[in-house]
Amino acid sequence: MASGQELEAAVRPGSWQPLGARFHTARPDQPGRPGRAGTNFALWAPGAEAVDLCLFDEDGQETRHRLTEQDVQIWHGFVPGVHPGTRYGFRVHGRWDPWTGARWNPAKLLLDPYARAIDGCYTSHDAACAAVRNWPEADVADTVRDNRDSAPYVPRSVVVHDEDDWYDDHRPKTPWPETVLYELHVRGFTMRHPDIPPHLRGTYAGLAHPAAISHLTRLGVTAVELLPVHQFASEDHLQARGLVNYWGYNTIGYFAPHAGYSSSGSRGGQVGEFKRMVRALHAAGIEVILDVVFNHTAEGGELGPMLSLRGIDNAAYYRLPPNRPRGYADYTGCGNTLDTRRPQVVRLVTDSLRYWVAEMGVDGFRFDLAAALARGGPGGGNGGDGVDMDHPFLAAVAQDPLLSRVKLIAEPWDVGPGGYQVGGFPPPWAEWNDKYRDAVRDFWRGARADVRELGYRLSGSSDLYQRSGRRPYASVNFVTAHDGFTLRDLVSYDRKHNEANGEANRDGTDDNRSWNHGAEGETTDPAVRALRLRQLRNLIATLLLSAGVPMLTAGDELGRTQGGNNNAYCQDNEASWLDWSLLAEPGWQELCELTARLVRLRRAHPVLRRRAFFSGRAATPGGRPDLAWFTPLGKEMTEADWFAPTACLGMLLCGTAMSERDDSGEPLQDDSFLLLLNADHRETVFTLPGEPWAEPEAAYETLIDTAAGGTGDREPYPRGAVLLAPRSLHLLRIPTR
Q1: By CB count within 10 A, which of 183, 216, 260, 585 is most buried?
Q2: What are 326-350's pLDDT values in tens digits?
Q3: Strand (E) positions, 463-513?
Q4: 645 CA to centre of own chain
Q5: What does the pLDDT look like over 531-565, one tens digit per residue?
Q6: Which residues of 513-536 are buried (b: 16+ CB within 10 A; e: fewer)?
Q7: Is the model's pTM score more than 0.90?
């Protein structure tokens, strides 16, 4: 390795902006522009005393270059001859004083927070930690610096050539009310697909394959919500058990597509492959939403690895308790929390978001544990640690001319005090609505005495979103998600079965709100199997016929099972991958067809995907209300009926009383629909509403009957009553005349 003095001569001053590594060709015609092709490196490290740029050749040999220039707390330098594909990292010098939050350690190779690609994986090893993990006095181990080189155990950043080749891309720009989300895992969705070439399975290219896209278009979903695709690392405890972090909620590179999902290698090829995937999905009319994890990083707690931000400036990037800056404020359950109170950290997050929209083509984001990003703003309580909806991060996103126009979805909680914020995020945010999940699960398993909660959830959750000026599409409705039981397991297990995770079945929630219908797990009992399948139809139909934005979980329409594991975050195997062979079984094939039929119904009828909340009043004098609720006697529900024990109700959506207008300004007109839900274990006679809801000569037409396999093959009901099978759902149409 050459001496520091010789290496310094190879580095030119360069520029302090933009941050990260930017390759550019020679342009000697511009004053101040270096005359040779090369790469400019810029790193924000406000408290550092020195920064070394570390370049790696093809054999993995490291050469260090001291960056001597610093402007506005950013260390920078231009290195001629450094081309795309070059691997690099940083070593940052400074004080070692954990008692004040200072944890600089130049023995540790660090990733560039702005790296566009990352090569290699984190391998669990004590040398990757900044402190001595196995120090005899465990209570002070994090204060003893480990001086071993971490380079053999950590990944490298990669210089990438920027390519803005989006001339042939057309974003679908699906309006929120027309959106149907489909949450999927890039790897798990394609790993077992028989029509995708083996070398593409589990990759971005595999998801872009026509065989994968054809299933999405056949279902009719308008957007895929991808589990994390930012570069992530597997935790030490998983590696010790021979497992990996499959879900990916352990980010270490906010600009880098996860290299493990690339069929094009990890030296920058993953960037182009991701872009091609987005382009292919857009061509099919499907938007791409990314699940992003800005609440914490893969560096974990005090004895976690030093991979990037901790070694660049620990106190500048992370929230440290004022009374114990040696530790971390942990509102995420993952050991640390990113400090989005700081302008430069807000810049890191928003720069990442803008990059994925402007340069990678994505259409929106779902923010994991979003409440943690809004803690400790100017109005925050609990000593500045409360959740504050005037937080600088939320303000930065709201005023950004690019980010304020994409889809923004909050997981509106974290694990800290006061962290549950469902209904609390401001416009233009949508939210995962777990109140919807719980109400629908409870209703169909017969766990609630009355239907008050269900009424709010079916009609768009106005109690949560109307007061803040939001619309029904602020509610992302879901019955299942990646976290928890699959839909099939929800009706097959009373208890979680997470033994394969190696945590003695202690991990995962015990609040599943599930019901096994008489047998724990798989069974050959035909009565139990038939009832479970009917319940799956009930749950999917309820989801897709509710006001709000529905989110399906990949594989639920196929009857995917995880064997009762409700926390399969570390199961990168057949337990988590979609089993496409299920489509050969008639029952699961019919469920898939029912799902697609319901999506088509929703798309065809604006009354099923309203932009505005129901008022319960007539839009015109003498007209019919836009929404009415009925008891099985065919009478409108009174206040007492909402409080009375019942397992059956009717919801009538009046398509001729909508307050909304079409693009030309004309009032929207649609058919009217009567949705009947019977969670009782007995048959129920439901008297159909007469005038003014149905004209004397009008006939109720059955569109969906979950007791008949989901098909509407019955004769129309002219007037009178319908016999609802036990635990069944009917959707009846009243044609508009």
Answers
A1: 183
A2: 999 999 999 999 999 999 999 999 9
A3: 475-477
A4: 36
A5: 999 999 999 999 999 999 999 999 999 999 999 99
A6: bbbbbebeeeeeeeebbebbbbbb
A7: yes
Spatial neighbors of 173 by CB under 8 A, at least 6 apart, are 287, 363
Of the CA atoms within 13 Å of residue 49, those in its CB half-sphere come to 9
Task: Compute how many other C-beta atoms are within 10 angstroms of the C-beta atom of residue 340.
Answer: 25
State which H helix or E strand residue 487 sits in.
helix 487-490
Q: Cα torsion at 575, 579, 582, 584 (round to 10°)?
A: -150
Kindly report, residue by residue over 593-635, the tens digit of the pLDDT. Answer: 999 999 999 999 999 999 999 988 876 777 789 999 999 999 9
Q: What sign has the CA pseudo-torsion 709, 712, 715, 720? A: positive
Active site residue 639: no
Q: Are 347 and 272 in contact (CB under 8 A)?
A: no
Catalytic-role residue among 52, 368, 385, 705: 368
DSSP 8-state assignment for residue 162:
-
Measured CA distances, 297 to 318, 347, 540, 685, 735 (Å): 9, 16, 35, 56, 54
Catalytic residue among 225, 411, 556, 670: 411
Structural contact between residues 515 and 494, judged by C-beta atoms closer than 8 angstroms: yes
CB-count burial class (<10 Å; 0-12, 13-18, 19+) for 19: buried
Query: Strands 430-433 and 475-477: what pairing?
Result: parallel
| Torsion angles phi and psi, residue 643, rounded to 5 | -95, -10
Closest C-alpha among 224, 225, 187 to residue 206: 187
Q: Tell me whether residue 58 is one of the annotated catalytic residues.
A: no
The letter for the amino acid at 153 is Y
d(CA 516, CA 313): 51
CB atoms within 10 A of CB 470: 23
671 secondary structure, DSSP code: -
In sequence order, what E strands does 458-531 have?
475-477
